[in-house]
C-alpha cells in the first residue's frame, strides 16, 4: 500500500470512528488515489484533484463538486501531516444551490425496467436486478439501505424488513405488502439455488456472491434505462435509480389526496416509513410534483369554501 493510500485509510478510519459512514466518499478517494499515483503524485495537488473531479463526462455540477469536496476534506486532514499537500478551493467547482426536481417514474416504466432486468445475463444478475428494482419501487427504500440488507433483515413471517443503521444512524422496520414478501421469497430461493455458497450474508448479491455496491448497480441500471427508452424530458438531466424512492413518495401522497383522507395527519407516517428525520424532507414532495401542488391547492380551496 502506498503512503497516500495509507493516509486515506487512516483518514476514513478516524472519520468513521466519529460516526460518519463515508461509503461513497471512501470509494471516491480510492479512485482518486489510483488516479494521482498514475500521474506520479505522492500527495494532493489542486491541479490533479481538479482534473480527477472533472473526469465524468456529462456529470452534473453537483456531482463534480461532490468529488472535489471529498478530496478537499481529505486534503485538509493530510495538510496537517504533509506541508506539500494542497487543499483545493471549493470555489473551483461550486455546487448549485437548488434541489433539482426528481424524475417520477410511470407505472409502465417500472414494469418495463423489471421486464428488461429479466433479460440480463447471467440469470443471477437478472433475478437480483428484477427483485431490487421492484423492492425500491414499492417501498421507497434508499439504494444504500437496500444493498445494506442482510438475509436476517428480511422477516417473511411478520412481513417486514429491518433497515439497520441507515442515514443519520437510524434503524427502522419497513412493512411489506404480501406480494412483496412473496417476490422476495422467490428471489431468495433462486439466489440460493444459483449461488449456494455466497461470500457475504447480504440479501442481494452479485454474480460473484458478494454484496452489491453502487458501481455494480449503476452501470447495468443505466443500460436498462437505454434499453427500455426511459429518459428525462430535459436532455441535460439524468434519470436515477434513487428517483424510484421519490416516485414512491409522490404516488403515496397522490393516493391519500385522491381518497379524501387527512394528508397532514398521515404525513408523519410517511416520514417514518421513509426514514426521514425531519418531516420537512417529506413535505418537500408537495412542491416537487406539480400534480400534488394542484391537489393540495384544490383541497385548500374546498376547505376555505367550507368555512365561508
Question: How are the secondary structure elements laid out?
Answer:
Layout: H1 3-17, H2 23-38, H3 46-53, H4 61-79, H5 107-117, H6 123-139, H7 143-147, E1 154-155, E2 160-163, E3 172-175, H8 178-194, H9 214-228, H10 243-258, H11 263-274, H12 279-288, H13 290-307
Antiparallel strand pairs: 1-2, 2-3
Task: Fill in the keyword field for this structure.
mainly alpha, 3 domains, three-stranded antiparallel beta sheet
Task: Characterise the protein shown here.
By secondary structure, the chain is mainly α. The protein folds into three domains: 78 residues; 121 residues, Intergrase catalytic core (hpI Integrase, Chain A); 65 residues. Helix content is 58%, strand content 3%. It has 13 helices and three strands, in the order αααααααβββαααααα. A three-stranded antiparallel beta sheet has the order 1-2-3. A hairpin with a 4-residue loop joins β1 and β2. α5 crosses α9. It is globular and about 65 Å long.
CATH class of the largest domain: Mainly Alpha
Computed over alpha carbons, the radius of gyration is 22 Å
- Overall, the morphology is globular
Count the beta strands.
3
What is the typical, i.e. mean, pLDDT? 88
Give me the side-by-side strand order of the main sheet.
Answer: 1-2-3
Compute the number of structural domains. 3
* Unreliable runs: none
**SSE order, one letter for each helix or strand:** HHHHHHHEEEHHHHHH
Distance between the termini: 74 Å
Quaternary structure state of the chains depicted: single chain
The helical percent reads 55-70%
Give the second-level CATH assignment, the architecture of the largest domain: Orthogonal Bundle
Secondary structure tally, helices: 13
Largest sheet: 3 strands, antiparallel
The share of residues in extended strands comes to: under 5%
- According to CATH, what is the topology of the largest domain? hpI Integrase, Chain A
The CATH fourth-level homologous superfamily of the largest domain:
Intergrase catalytic core
Amino acid at each position: 500500500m502506498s503512503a497516500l493510500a495509507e493516509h486515506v485509510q487512516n483518514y476514513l478510519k478516524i472519520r468513521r470512528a466519529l460516526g460518519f459512514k463515508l461509503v461513497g466518499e471512501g470509494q471516491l478517494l480510492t479512485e482518486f488515489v489510483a488516479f494521482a499515483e498514475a500521474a506520479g503524485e505522492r500527495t494532493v495537488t489542486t491541479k490533479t484533484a481538479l482534473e480527477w473531479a472533472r473526469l465524468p463526462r456529462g456529470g452534473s455540477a453537483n456531482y463534480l463538486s461532490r468529488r472535489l469536496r471529498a478530496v478537499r476534506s481529505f486534503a485538509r486532514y493530510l495538510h496537517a501531516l504533509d506541508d506539500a499537500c494542497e487543499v483545493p478551493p471549493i470555489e473551483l467547482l461550486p455546487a448549485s444551490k437548488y434541489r433539482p426536481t426528481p424524475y417520477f417514474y410511470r407505472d409502465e416504466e417500472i414494469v418495463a425496467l423489471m421486464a428488461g432486468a429479466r433479460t440480463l445475463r447471467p440469470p443471477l444478475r437478472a433475478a437480483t436486478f428484477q427483485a431490487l428494482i421492484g423492492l425500491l419501487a414499492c417501498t421507497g427504500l434508499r439504494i444504500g439501505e437496500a444493498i445494506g440488507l442482510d438475509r436476517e433483515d428480511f422477516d417473511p413471517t411478520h412481513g417486514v424488513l429491518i433497515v439497520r443503521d441507515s442515514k443519520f444512524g437510524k434503524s427502522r422496520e419497513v412493512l411489506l405488502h404480501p406480494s412483496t414478501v412473496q417476490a422476495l421469497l422467490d428471489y431468495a430461493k433462486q439466489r440460493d439455488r444459483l449461488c449456494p455458497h455466497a461470500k457475504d450474508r447480504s440479501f442481494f448479491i452479485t454474480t460473484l456472491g458478494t454484496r452489491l455496491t453502487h458501481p455494480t448497480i449503476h452501470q447495468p441500471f443505466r443500460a436498462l434505462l437505454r434499453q427500455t427508452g426511459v429518459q428525462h424530458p430535459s436532455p441535460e438531466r439524468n434519470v436515477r435509480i434513487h428517483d424510484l424512492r421519490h416516485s414512491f413518495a409522490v404516488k403515496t401522497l397522490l393516493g391519500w389526496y385522491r381518497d379524501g383522507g387527512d394528508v397532514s395527519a398521515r404525513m408523519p407516517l410517511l416520514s417514518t416509513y421513509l426514514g426521514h428525520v425531519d418531516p420537512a424532507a417529506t413535505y418537500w414532495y408537495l412542491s416537487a410534483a406539480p400534480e400534488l401542488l394542484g391537489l393540495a391547492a384544490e383541497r385548500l380551496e374546498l376547505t376555505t369554501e367550507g368555512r365561508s
